[in-house]
Protein backbone atom coordinates (compact mmCIF):
# COMPACT_ATOMS: atom_id res chain seq x y z
CA UNK A 1 0.00 0.00 0.00
CA UNK A 2 1.34 3.41 -0.98
CA UNK A 3 0.76 6.19 1.51
CA UNK A 4 0.86 9.77 0.37
CA UNK A 5 1.22 12.48 2.99
CA UNK A 6 -0.85 15.57 2.42
CA UNK A 7 1.04 18.82 2.33
CA UNK A 8 -1.44 20.65 4.57
CA UNK A 9 -4.02 19.97 7.25
CA UNK A 10 -6.85 19.61 4.74
CA UNK A 11 -8.53 16.20 4.96
CA UNK A 12 -9.03 16.24 1.18
CA UNK A 13 -11.61 14.09 -0.63
CA UNK A 14 -12.86 11.00 1.21
CA UNK A 15 -14.85 8.05 -0.13
CA UNK A 16 -16.60 5.40 1.97
CA UNK A 17 -17.23 1.95 0.48
CA UNK A 18 -19.02 -0.99 2.03
CA UNK A 19 -22.12 -3.16 1.73
CA UNK A 20 -25.53 -1.96 2.91
CA UNK A 21 -25.64 -1.95 6.70
CA UNK A 22 -21.90 -1.47 7.18
CA UNK A 23 -22.51 1.85 8.90
CA UNK A 24 -21.32 4.23 6.17
CA UNK A 25 -23.95 6.85 6.97
CA UNK A 26 -23.37 6.70 10.71
CA UNK A 27 -19.61 7.03 10.31
CA UNK A 28 -19.92 9.74 7.66
CA UNK A 29 -21.99 11.95 9.95
CA UNK A 30 -19.47 11.59 12.77
CA UNK A 31 -16.39 12.11 10.60
CA UNK A 32 -17.63 15.24 8.81
CA UNK A 33 -18.73 16.75 12.11
CA UNK A 34 -15.23 16.32 13.51
CA UNK A 35 -13.40 17.38 10.33
CA UNK A 36 -15.69 20.26 9.41
CA UNK A 37 -16.22 19.21 5.79
CA UNK A 38 -19.45 18.55 3.82
CA UNK A 39 -21.12 15.16 3.80
CA UNK A 40 -22.26 14.65 0.21
CA UNK A 41 -24.70 11.86 -0.55
CA UNK A 42 -26.33 11.05 -3.86
CA UNK A 43 -29.76 11.08 -2.22
CA UNK A 44 -29.23 14.60 -0.90
CA UNK A 45 -28.00 15.77 -4.30
CA UNK A 46 -31.04 14.32 -6.05
CA UNK A 47 -33.42 15.99 -3.60
CA UNK A 48 -31.65 19.36 -3.76
CA UNK A 49 -31.58 19.43 -7.55
CA UNK A 50 -35.22 18.33 -7.72
CA UNK A 51 -36.28 21.06 -5.26
CA UNK A 52 -34.30 23.70 -7.18
CA UNK A 53 -35.74 22.33 -10.45
CA UNK A 54 -32.35 22.35 -12.11
CA UNK A 55 -32.09 20.69 -15.54
CA UNK A 56 -30.20 17.78 -13.93
CA UNK A 57 -32.76 17.52 -11.14
CA UNK A 58 -35.69 17.42 -13.54
CA UNK A 59 -33.94 14.78 -15.65
CA UNK A 60 -33.18 12.64 -12.59
CA UNK A 61 -36.73 13.00 -11.24
CA UNK A 62 -38.27 11.95 -14.53
CA UNK A 63 -36.07 8.85 -14.59
CA UNK A 64 -36.83 7.92 -10.97
CA UNK A 65 -40.57 8.56 -11.37
CA UNK A 66 -40.62 6.11 -14.27
CA UNK A 67 -38.89 3.48 -12.13
CA UNK A 68 -35.51 3.71 -13.85
CA UNK A 69 -32.01 4.21 -12.53
CA UNK A 70 -30.43 7.63 -12.90
CA UNK A 71 -27.63 7.39 -15.46
CA UNK A 72 -23.97 7.82 -14.63
CA UNK A 73 -23.74 10.98 -16.73
CA UNK A 74 -26.37 12.76 -14.64
CA UNK A 75 -24.91 11.61 -11.32
CA UNK A 76 -21.39 12.56 -12.38
CA UNK A 77 -22.52 16.06 -13.37
CA UNK A 78 -24.27 16.52 -10.03
CA UNK A 79 -21.14 15.47 -8.17
CA UNK A 80 -18.94 17.74 -10.25
CA UNK A 81 -21.22 20.72 -9.59
CA UNK A 82 -21.50 19.99 -5.87
CA UNK A 83 -17.79 19.60 -5.12
CA UNK A 84 -16.98 22.77 -7.08
CA UNK A 85 -18.63 24.87 -4.35
CA UNK A 86 -16.60 26.86 -1.86
CA UNK A 87 -17.53 24.68 1.13
CA UNK A 88 -15.65 21.78 -0.47
CA UNK A 89 -12.37 23.68 -0.65
CA UNK A 90 -10.84 21.88 2.36
CA UNK A 91 -12.31 18.51 1.52
CA UNK A 92 -15.55 16.54 1.47
CA UNK A 93 -16.88 13.06 2.07
CA UNK A 94 -18.74 11.19 -0.68
CA UNK A 95 -21.37 8.76 0.59
CA UNK A 96 -23.09 6.54 -1.98
CA UNK A 97 -20.81 7.61 -4.81
CA UNK A 98 -19.11 6.19 -6.77
CA UNK A 99 -21.23 3.06 -7.14
CA UNK A 100 -19.79 1.77 -10.42
CA UNK A 101 -16.43 1.57 -12.12
CA UNK A 102 -17.62 4.11 -14.69
CA UNK A 103 -18.43 6.55 -11.88
CA UNK A 104 -15.05 5.90 -10.24
CA UNK A 105 -13.26 6.69 -13.48
CA UNK A 106 -15.35 9.84 -13.88
CA UNK A 107 -14.58 10.90 -10.30
CA UNK A 108 -10.87 10.42 -10.96
CA UNK A 109 -11.10 12.86 -13.85
CA UNK A 110 -13.23 15.34 -11.89
CA UNK A 111 -10.77 15.39 -8.99
CA UNK A 112 -7.81 15.74 -11.33
CA UNK A 113 -9.48 18.72 -12.97
CA UNK A 114 -10.24 20.19 -9.55
CA UNK A 115 -6.65 19.63 -8.44
CA UNK A 116 -7.73 17.60 -5.40
CA UNK A 117 -5.65 14.47 -6.01
CA UNK A 118 -6.78 10.92 -5.33
CA UNK A 119 -9.31 10.40 -2.53
CA UNK A 120 -8.66 8.52 0.67
CA UNK A 121 -10.94 5.48 0.29
CA UNK A 122 -12.13 3.62 3.36
CA UNK A 123 -13.78 0.24 2.94
CA UNK A 124 -16.01 -0.71 5.87
CA UNK A 125 -15.71 -4.49 5.71
CA UNK A 126 -18.64 -6.58 6.96
CA UNK A 127 -19.75 -10.18 6.39
CA UNK A 128 -23.04 -10.70 4.58
CA UNK A 129 -24.73 -12.66 7.39
CA UNK A 130 -23.98 -9.76 9.73
CA UNK A 131 -25.36 -7.35 7.13
CA UNK A 132 -28.68 -9.24 7.06
CA UNK A 133 -28.86 -9.28 10.85
CA UNK A 134 -28.09 -5.57 11.12
CA UNK A 135 -30.43 -4.34 8.41
CA UNK A 136 -33.37 -6.48 9.46
CA UNK A 137 -33.04 -4.90 12.92
CA UNK A 138 -32.70 -1.34 11.65
CA UNK A 139 -35.38 1.22 12.49
CA UNK A 140 -35.55 4.83 11.31
CA UNK A 141 -37.24 7.91 12.74
CA UNK A 142 -39.46 9.45 10.02
CA UNK A 143 -39.08 12.90 11.60
CA UNK A 144 -35.34 13.38 12.27
CA UNK A 145 -34.02 10.43 10.20
CA UNK A 146 -32.06 9.09 13.17
CA UNK A 147 -31.13 5.44 12.68
CA UNK A 148 -31.41 2.80 15.42
CA UNK A 149 -30.61 -0.90 15.54
CA UNK A 150 -32.61 -3.21 17.77
CA UNK A 151 -29.52 -5.13 18.86
CA UNK A 152 -26.64 -2.65 18.51
CA UNK A 153 -28.16 0.80 19.14
CA UNK A 154 -31.72 0.39 20.43
CA UNK A 155 -33.87 3.36 21.46
CA UNK A 156 -34.35 3.98 25.18
CA UNK A 157 -38.04 3.16 24.77
CA UNK A 158 -38.91 0.35 22.33
CA UNK A 159 -40.25 1.67 19.04
CA UNK A 160 -39.89 5.36 19.98
CA UNK A 161 -37.26 7.88 18.84
CA UNK A 162 -35.18 9.25 21.70
CA UNK A 163 -35.01 12.71 20.10
CA UNK A 164 -38.61 13.51 19.22
CA UNK A 165 -40.87 10.68 20.39
CA UNK A 166 -41.91 9.64 16.88
CA UNK A 167 -42.76 6.01 16.13
CA UNK A 168 -39.83 4.25 14.49
CA UNK A 169 -40.30 2.59 11.12
CA UNK A 170 -38.73 -0.28 9.20
CA UNK A 171 -37.97 0.44 5.56
CA UNK A 172 -39.42 -2.09 3.10
CA UNK A 173 -35.92 -2.73 1.70
CA UNK A 174 -34.71 -3.72 5.19
CA UNK A 175 -36.68 -6.97 5.10
CA UNK A 176 -34.57 -10.09 4.58
CA UNK A 177 -35.60 -10.93 0.99
CA UNK A 178 -34.97 -7.36 -0.13
CA UNK A 179 -31.67 -7.25 1.75
CA UNK A 180 -30.34 -10.27 -0.09
CA UNK A 181 -31.31 -8.70 -3.41
CA UNK A 182 -29.44 -5.53 -2.44
CA UNK A 183 -26.37 -7.56 -1.49
CA UNK A 184 -26.44 -9.34 -4.83
CA UNK A 185 -26.59 -5.99 -6.63
CA UNK A 186 -23.75 -4.68 -4.46
CA UNK A 187 -21.58 -7.69 -5.23
CA UNK A 188 -22.11 -7.27 -8.96
CA UNK A 189 -21.89 -3.51 -9.27
CA UNK A 190 -20.03 -1.94 -6.35
CA UNK A 191 -17.62 -4.55 -4.97
CA UNK A 192 -15.33 -4.28 -8.06
CA UNK A 193 -14.56 -0.74 -6.89
CA UNK A 194 -12.46 -2.30 -4.12
CA UNK A 195 -10.01 -3.69 -6.67
CA UNK A 196 -10.01 -0.37 -8.54
CA UNK A 197 -9.14 1.66 -5.48
CA UNK A 198 -6.56 -0.80 -4.22
CA UNK A 199 -4.59 0.05 -7.34
CA UNK A 200 -5.02 3.77 -6.73
CA UNK A 201 -2.87 3.51 -3.59
CA UNK A 202 -4.93 5.30 -0.91
CA UNK A 203 -7.21 2.43 0.00
CA UNK A 204 -7.77 1.28 3.60
CA UNK A 205 -10.00 -1.32 5.22
CA UNK A 206 -11.73 -1.09 8.58
CA UNK A 207 -13.50 -3.94 10.37
CA UNK A 208 -17.10 -2.72 10.61
CA UNK A 209 -18.15 -5.55 12.93
CA UNK A 210 -17.39 -3.59 16.11
CA UNK A 211 -18.81 -0.73 18.16
CA UNK A 212 -19.38 2.50 16.18
CA UNK A 213 -16.96 4.46 18.39
CA UNK A 214 -14.15 2.00 17.70
CA UNK A 215 -14.81 2.26 13.96
CA UNK A 216 -14.66 6.05 14.16
CA UNK A 217 -11.37 5.83 16.03
CA UNK A 218 -9.90 3.51 13.40
CA UNK A 219 -10.95 5.90 10.63
CA UNK A 220 -9.32 8.84 12.40
CA UNK A 221 -6.07 6.92 12.77
CA UNK A 222 -6.09 6.24 9.03
CA UNK A 223 -6.76 9.88 8.19
CA UNK A 224 -4.00 11.06 10.51
CA UNK A 225 -1.51 8.67 8.90
CA UNK A 226 -2.50 9.12 5.25
What would the keywords be for this entry?
226 residues, alpha/beta, Rossmann fold, five-stranded parallel beta sheet, two-stranded antiparallel ribbon, 9 helices, 7 strands, disordered N terminus
Task: Give a brief rundown of this model.
The protein is α/β, with parallel strands linked by helices and 226 residues long. Helices cover 47% and strands 14% of the residues. Residues 1-8 have low confidence and may be disordered.
Strand numbers in spatial order across the main sheet: 2-3-1-4-7
Tell the overall outline: globular
What percent of the residues sit in helical stretches (DSSP H or I)? Answer: 40-55%
Largest sheet: 5 strands, parallel
CATH fold name: Rossmann fold
The CATH homologous superfamily is termed: P-loop containing nucleotide triphosphate hydrolases
Distance between the termini: 11 Å
Amino acid sequence: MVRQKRSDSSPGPLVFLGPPGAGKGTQAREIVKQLGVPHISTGDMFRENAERKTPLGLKAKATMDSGGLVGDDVVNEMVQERISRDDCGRGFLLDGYPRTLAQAEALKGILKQKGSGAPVVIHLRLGYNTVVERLSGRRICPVCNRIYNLSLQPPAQPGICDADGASLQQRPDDREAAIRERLSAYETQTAPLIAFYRNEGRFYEVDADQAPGRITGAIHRILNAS
